[in-house]
Amino acid sequence: MKFTTYYSNLIKANGVPHLNVKQHAHLMNIIVLEAGMAQLEKLKCEGQSHVNKTKTLYDLENKLQHLTQKESPEAIMRSRIEQSQ
Question: E-assigned strands of 2-85?
Answer without folding.
Answer: none
